Structures are given as structure tokens and as C-alpha cells.
Amino acid sequence: ASTVTNGAGLAWEYRRGGYILTANVTGYRRASWHAWGSGADATGPVDGTTYTRYQANLSRDWYFGPFQKLHINGAYFSGRDLDRFSKYQFGMFDDTRVHGVPSSGIRFEQLGMLRGSYTFNIFDVYRLDLFAEHAWGRDRPTEWESMTGLGAAVNLRGPKSTILRADFGKSFLPDRFQSVGSYTFQILVLKPLR
User: CA-CA distance, 175 to 145, in Å (whole number)?
Assistant: First the structure.
């Protein structure tokens, strides 16, 4: 079964002294909701047709000369009435990404994260990124589970004004998630709009 979901949200951002604090909340309403799955895995109607997701982030960048940057980020993600499809996961383009954690098979209602990265960047053409990330996740009322991710990415100039990005990650997951894997590798070909 499928469902249509509509949402509206508010976002707030504050910048001072190199720090960036952001917070947002988004409420969603499901137009319809039907049972999906079977047995213990079934996901059916939840308490009502609405759910809410919210998050807060605090970030700081330090620049060392024209080519080097250190980035530190702390974040918290949570919500109300989240189901299997609205819980937080670790997709490549998600705010909750942790290198090495696969984008499917691991979902949490609540996440706390601490992430750091080092970047060596020459004119956005040649770039090296190193990542160290740690997350704590839980589904209420279970205990918090932790996972660590390490990663590296490189950007190189490609043919016809393209940029090739290769990104590798290795994670250290809780025992119950060992079957989903702990390595990720992505190759992207980017074409800047000019």
C-alpha cells in the first residue's frame, strides 16, 4: 500500500562568532494509511494520521590557511509518532549520514550525533575529506545504541568540466545490525551548472 504525506515546518538559524545553531520542526499528515508487511514485521496504522520530526544542530568551522578546514558538528534528531517509514535513517544525502552506515536496515526514533571532518581543498577542483563520526540511536523505550563511522572522500577534475567524487566509509555497528554490512563506497560524477 502507499500513502500521500503532506508537511509544513518552521526553521530557525543563529550565527555568531563562527558558530551556527539551527533548529527546525516539521509536522506531517498522512492522507491515508494501510497495514504493510506481515507478522511481527507489520507496520499498520499508528495513533492518528499525524507525526512530527524535529532536530537541532550546532556547528563550527576553523580555517587553516587558504586550503584547509576543520568542521565539528553536534546534532539531535527526534520526533513524535514516527513509524518505520518516518524514522531517521543514514542515507547518503540525509542530514543524519554517518560514513560506513548503510542507508537501509538501520532506523531510529531518536539520534544524537557528533561529527568531525578535515578538508584539504584546492579551488573546489582537487579536494580530500577525512571524516570521524559517532552516533547514538534508540527506539523508545529501548536503551541507546552507539555506532562509529570513519570515512574518506576525494574530488578530482574529470573530462568535459566534470568532477569525479569517490567516497568510502567503514562503520562499527551494534551487534544486532551486523548483517546489514558496515562498508559503503560511492562514486559520483558531478557536472557544475555554469
Answer: 10
